[in-house]
## 1
Amino acid sequence: GAGVSQSPSNKVTEKGKDVELRCDPISGHTALYWYRQSLGQGLEFLIYFQGNSAPDKSGLPSDRFSAERTGGSVSTLTIQRTQQEDSAVYLCASSSFPRGKASYEQYFGPGTRLTVT
Amino acid sequence: TQLLEQSPQFLSIQEGENLTVYCNSSSVFSSLQWYRQEPGEGPVLLVTVVTGGEVKKLKRLTFQFGDARKDSSLHITAAQPGDTGLYLCAAPTFTSGTYKYIFGTGTRLKVLA
């Protein structure tokens, strides 16, 4: 079956430009996450969508970052007025959210490598 | 703030050697996961441990959850070049009405043939 897909796989942009990163989650998964990974380090949580609930935006580093999820499926992460420190790999993950279970698996996309010059 | 510290940060070993990677926290977690990430790909779940003291084996990989559920270890026996990658631990948190995972700082493993 199809996994999580992300586009573009690579994006090079000039400082100050806006970029949009897209995530297509696994069909039927109600939860969607965006993470940022710098220099092959651990994952930094950005934002979380769960069903029709208000998203948890607590990880967004500044008001230049925003995300939306349309129709409970595709999500777009937008970075306005990009800065060099925004250069990183942006990972999207989705999961089902089985009630009553102590844990759940996140399925990750391959990521979008963003380079701001 | 809940943090997951992993050690070592980097590890380069020869094929056939054994190694152990650690994931530590001052917080107690209901469960803990280990993921492996290969270059150009997203992390893939290896295992979930949920009971203090639990040991799970996945071929040459042995995972243990600490008795107090604050730490975990991953032991690889007779490492192979295919084990090369970034190993991440992750644990669930519930804050401000949101249930989500935090990830560790990562251990980058390179196994030389």
## 2
Amino acid sequence: QQQVKQSPQSLIVQKGGISIINCAYENTAFDYFPWYQQFPGKGPALLIAIRPDVSEKKEGRFTISFNKSAKQFSLHIMDSQPGDSATYFCAASYGSGGGADGLTFGKGTHLIIQP
Amino acid sequence: GAGVSQSPRYKVAKRGQDVALRCDPISGHVSLFWYQQALGQGPEFLTYFQNEAQLDKSGLPSDRFFAERPEGSVSTLKIQRTQQEDSAVYLCASSLWWDASSGNTIYFGEGSWLTVV
């Protein structure tokens, strides 16, 4: 059972456009929702993260929108640049108080920004 | 070190061979994770350590997989009698203290690419 479903699988956006990647989760115990960026041959790197007590978080050109009732969250990349071309993973976790579990990842979105 | 360091970066093993993958977490990081990433997929949780204690090994796919962190710093993931389905990137990650409420970031290494032939 896949606990975090991510879409689309791949995305092509023109330079300067808005890239939107969506994720849906099933486990209502999740309370931490990060997005990771991964370049070929590299490990995932944290991009931005949100907790369910806020509906939106913005850092530079990157924004997470969170809908707790729908159990969905999305990543918006404004003014997309060729350097943003990478694979993006949403993830979710719970474990307040030192719980183990770590992160449950989506399957990833391969983003290509065309110049 | 500046980041999570993994070795070897690339390993080709013959089916049935034992392999050992090493992870050097960021200095001072208490929490350490191992993930498996198949080609074109997201990372999947294998196991978690807090200092030297292995608190969760529920993601290890079989008893051929074994992980240890005897002194609470360096960790080794060992795979015995490797099979072709073990071919994947094995990612190590560390965090100062993992707690979903703490806001501490989980940092990933670049991975060990294992190919079983």
## 3
Amino acid sequence: GAGVSQSPRYKVAKRGQDVALRCDPISGHVSLFWYQQALGQGPEFLTYFQNEAQLDKSGLPSDRFFAERPEGSVSTLKIQRTQQEDSAVYLCASSLGQRETNEQFFGPGTRLTVL
Amino acid sequence: AQTVTQSQPEMSVQEAETVTLSCTYDTSESDYYLFWYKQPPSRQMILVIRQEAYKQQNATENRFSVNFQKAAKSFSLKISDSQLGDAAMYFCAYMGQGGSEKLVFGKGMKLTVNP
């Protein structure tokens, strides 16, 4: 596709359920980012991949959050035992991975609601 | 840690007028990148303009320009000839020179354009 895609677009989970959010980056983009955007706030960094390597996971809020990108393309963000404070829009972004051209292209996001 | 502050949560402008959005940031780094991103109601974030800190010349993209004051750590966005399509949330963001390519965002500002 032409841009970053994410699925599902909306997810409702009961507290305690596990969820998996998918991101398809732009073909050929080396870097992939996950951000969490709470209502009325700016996005906050969660984690970053360069190809299949997870280079920075300093933003993951707890060990319930796990991300992977096993083949250096599609990425999955998994949240175990969801809690109400996990309700947010989860944004994925990709870039060429070169600082000289470091524009991040964002997907439409997955809105997660935990009841 | 780097922080980005957008002190005005909302602004409005008349169509065809000019508006300036303010942003300040805090960092101990000497080289970095600054961005303005736009997030329309559909929620897909798109890049408006980008500035490298080592460049003294302010970036310009058509109707969008920045006033970058490195010593004051200020990075404001000027939108000239405002159009209805400019209505959106605007986020100021920072990327450091070394390490992770993650973006640090401000809380955002909602711009309304009145016809």
## 4
Amino acid sequence: AQSVTQPDIHITVSEGASLELRCNYSYGATPYLFWYVQSPGQGLQLLLKYFSGDTLVQGIKGFEAEFKRSQSSFNLRKPSVHWSDAAEYFCAVGDRNTGFQKLVFGTGTRLLVSP
Amino acid sequence: GAGVSQSPSNKVTEKGKDVELRCDPISGHTALYWYRQSLGQGLEFLIYFQGNSAPDKSGLPSDRFSAERTGGSVSTLTIQRTQQEDSAVYLCASSNLQVLTYNEQFFGPGTRLTVL
């Protein structure tokens, strides 16, 4: 069965510093990977997705993620964090065979941004 | 256009009572999903509707949970005889589903359910 692990429950980063959020997945075939952001009181918003091809994918709000098959990882990065990036971030894996209906999510990482 | 809306935003109920949670998807979206977000548990898939097809109920945790989608639009998630472990945020999403390709799921703000 598919699973997603986000090992960091909380991360605190200073404004302007770089950010990396970790995500590891367990999936037998080629995974379809997603990062979502959930701001307080808001629904989830898709940041970026990986299906195939270039392993470095660019998303919205200056985020990027790199797919590393050898490490079963899909870490999210941003070179310079803004205070508005404080939110909860979820990594998810989808299954093309089910038409992506069933996204399996990690438990999330809460990002705190200090001044 | 308007996004996915959910009502109520917060619901407090007593153990053993039934609750209904409502989801209004984006107009024209053919697929509708329900997820549950429990503290420290991430998001858990509950049920999925696509057009007139039978819903995929494989994620419903017990027979106390049910959902319907009327007229291919609005959906209601019903929890009967609520238990304290049902306390969670219930998220609804919709997408304009196409076969064998990914279509982004757009999420509503959720309904926070508290069972006392």
